[in-house]
Amino acid sequence: MNDFGRLFRVTLYGESHGPAVGVILDGVPPGLSLAEDDFSADLARRRGGPAGTTARSEPDHPRIRSGLYHGHSTGTPLAIEFENTDTRPGDYAQFERYPRPGHADLASRARYRGWADPRGSGHFSGRLTVGVVAAGVVAKKLLPGVSFRTLVLEAGGRADVAAAMQEAQAAGDSVGSLVEIHVDGLSSGLGEPYWDGLESRLAAALFAVPGVRGVEFGDGFRVAAMRGSEHNDPILDAEGRTERNGAGGINGGVGNGNQVVVRVAFKPPSSIALPQDTVDMDTGQRARVSAAGRHDACLGPRGAVVLEAACAIVLADLALAARCHAAPESTP
Ligand SMILES: Cc1cc2nc3c(=O)[nH]c(=O)nc-3n(C[C@H](O)[C@H](O)[C@H](O)COP(=O)(O)O)c2cc1C
Fold first, then answer.
1. CATH number of residue 28's parent domain
2. Residue 204 Cα to ligand 1 middle (Å)
3. Tens digits of per-residue pLDDT, 39-55?
4. Whole-number Å distance between alpha carbons of 284 and 292
5. pTM higher than 0.90 for the full model?
6. Which of 74, 186, 205, 316 has the least C-beta neighbours within 10 A?
7. What is the rounded CA–CA span in Å between residue 157 and residue 179?
8. Residue with the nearest Cα to atom 14 of ligand 1?
């Protein structure tokens, strides 16, 4: 199944080199103003082109096929589609026989019993994330007063992200990256019990983004080396504002009203020009494979807005759930 969310439901569809990719959003309340132009800014952040990113050039023009009338959502499923125009499926033909180490070629073959569309990684391609970004744009509209700030902190451990990715690409290689997302303006109390806590849902959505290898909140993995007196966030007022933010804005899976801080580690993308060891699926013999096509050498710069969108999707879903929290005229 490819379906995420409870009240704001997101279904992605398509393959990298099929006719189109897209997203279907169910649960968008009626009357939300929406135009194709609303998507431009976030889609531009995801587009390839700069040195170190893929040379595939897609117009990424959103076609709204359902759920929009006179510039407003109708409340029925909102379907947003992006045509695939710059396809070169021949570039990927060899990966059926010689699966790329690190990519989904072999695992998807097992999952779909040999029937998966392998062209350009099919449904596992970064191309699918254009639909995530589109969903994020709609989700953000459901979060008035909430703002996002997303930064690529480093690539290959270096602050000079552009240089790191260009050098990796020039060497026929790729490089990992670290992205930090700050969310401000969330009212405290967002998050459902246990499985649907804010951290759990954010982590689930972020780990679904292809290439993500780590997610941490606030002090993150550093907590293992800390004392309680260092990690606890001193409370400043009855609103719950804190002096520091080691919790990353979340306690007990519930937003505490402070800034939500999430860091995400992207792996170095698997498709690299350098030859690597693999197996020949026809003969079962060891072989070498090189992925010299059009690829991103680093995922942070294009992936940052995808991560931000994944967070917005979760927050919109939980914000819709929060509307049902209070019984009529309830006073504790
Ligand atoms: C925006 C974006 C672009 C991507 N571009 C590439 C790429 O050009 N080459 C590549 O090998 N992987 C790319 N990926 C990552 C692969 O899709 C991903 O590694 C693959 O599906 C296997 O999934 P996994 O890394 O999560 O195990 C991209 C991911 C994102 C989010």
1. 3.60.150.10
2. 17
3. 999 999 999 888 889 98
4. 23
5. yes
6. 74
7. 12
8. 126
